[in-house]
Specification:
The protein is an alpha/beta fold. It is built from eleven helices and 14 strands. The structure holds magnesium ion (MG). Magnesium ion (MG) binds next to loops.
């Protein structure tokens, strides 16, 4: 018998990192008059000068990061996430060494080396965003080299279609468009006092009236509250059928989340995790019983390689994983997991009144829900099934 020697796929030749401005993966980088920057409650609202607009305190300071990984045969995998110019530095000057010359199928070893080589200054935030971008570009490359969609590499679809809830300012319109629920941004936090709390409840009550008793309504609090305010909000929102309260307090306050989960009315869900990272961060949320649904962002939590570990850990704890936004990078995961029964769709139309591609204008061929659903077959293209819009002005600040 001849023993086959495994030589693997074409080696990785080159890793490149670019910045792009104007929406896309940095979906907060929008023009004036967009719902996503209209007086949304934030932890910075304690300063009146930063209360009206999140761009005023720099929510779009970073911009989009584009990572490209080219194999020796000329095949290119790519991904977009946030992180901008500082992430470009990390990718080109630090992380690229763990990929160039390597077999692209070795994503476990590559991830491990990216994470532990940066651990002394990384672990969360920007560094893990950069790692996530590289990891997603690697999965895209792997899919393209093998001629398979990423969902097939992850074990295959467990259902025929994805169903979505919509995040935006108009759950009533989302209902008409076929979504299963609508999540609104909270507009007032503790600095707005009791008057702001009443306004929050009044907005929820108005929307409940418009959508009827059964449509899911959720509130996204973007880390703006404290346990006391979040508890009072949850109790008052209960009579208006609030399905879940999302990211109510600081992601560092695991103890606060555990308290909030004990405080909310029975049946109301506590969700969080979009600003959490890695299996170790999510282990804290799980073991301290901080929430009912984990919401990792695949572009921020460590990429697909890490999301698989987070998901398995959550499954063993009986928790759902419903990733934050992130378009095709989430869809290819959600379709493969039973504990990920639906997906988020960010309404990036300025008035939340039309379905537009979430990462527009950066991706070509980005699928969008139709009647709140997406057939699994819409994802049946190699890699993540999208191409980079190369007409956009891309800047490569740390070219090698
Ligand atoms: Mg959120």
């Amino acid at each position: 018998m001849v023993r086959m020697e495994y030589t693997g796929l074409p080696r990785i030749k080159h890793v490149r990192a670019f910045t792009v401005r104007g929406g896309g993966a940095d979906y907060h980088d929008q023009g004036e008059g967009h719902w996503i920057d209209d007086h949304i409650a934030t932890p910075m609202a304690r300063y009146p000068e930063y209360r009206q607009s999140r761009q005023s305190f720099g929510i779009n300071a970073l911009g989009t990061l584009v990572v490209e990984i080219e194999a020796e045969d000329g095949t290119i995998g790519f991904a977009v996430t946030t992180g901008g110019e500082p992430a470009c530095f990390l990718v080109e000057r630090h992380l690229a060494r763990f990929l160039e010359g390597r077999n692209p199928a070795e994503y476990e070893k590559i991830w491990d080396q990216m994470y532990f080589s940066t651990q002394y200054y990384g672990r969360k935030g920007l560094v893990v965003n950069a790692i996530s971008g590289v990891d997603l570009a690697l999965w895209d490359l792997l899919g393209k080299l093998r001629g398979e969609p990423v969902h097939a590499l992850l074990g295959g679809a467990v259902r025929d279609e994805l169903q979505f809830y919509a995040t935006g300012s108009r759950p009533d319109l989302a209902k008409d468009m076929g979504f299963i629920g609508g999540k609104m941004p909270l507009h007032h936090g503790p600095a707005g006092g009791i008057e702001g709390l009443r306004k929050n409840i009044a907005e929820l009550a108005t929307m409940r009236e418009r959508v009827g008793p059964d449509f899911w309504l959720m509130l996204d609090c973007w880390m703006a509250l404290d346990v006391d305010y979040a508890t009072r909000l949850a109790l008052a929102a209960n009579e208006h059928g609030l399905k879940w309260i999302e990211e109510a307090i600081s992601p560092d306050d695991y103890w606060g989340y555990a308290a909030l989960k004990r405080n909310v009315p029975r049946g109301m869900l506590v969700t969080t995790g979009e600003h959490e990272a890695t299996r170790w961060g999510f282990r804290m949320l799980l073991e301290m019983d901080c929430c009912d649904i984990l919401q990792p962002d695949v572009g921020w939590c460590g990429g697909m390689t890490e999301l698989l570990k987070i998901s398995a850990l959550a499954d063993a704890h009986g928790k759902l994983v419903v990733p934050h936004g992130s378009s095709v990078y989430s869809y290819h995961f959600v379709i493969t997991r039973h504990n990920s029964p639906f997906a988020e769709f960010l309404m990036m139309h300025p008035a939340s009144s039309e379905v537009v591609p979430m990462f527009h204008p950066q991706l070509i061929g980005e699928p969008v829900p139709v009647n709140g659903r997406l057939r699994a077959s819409a994802l049946d293209k190699p890699g993540f099934g999208v191409e980079l819009n190369r007409d956009l002005p891309m800047h490569r600040p740390y070219a090698r």
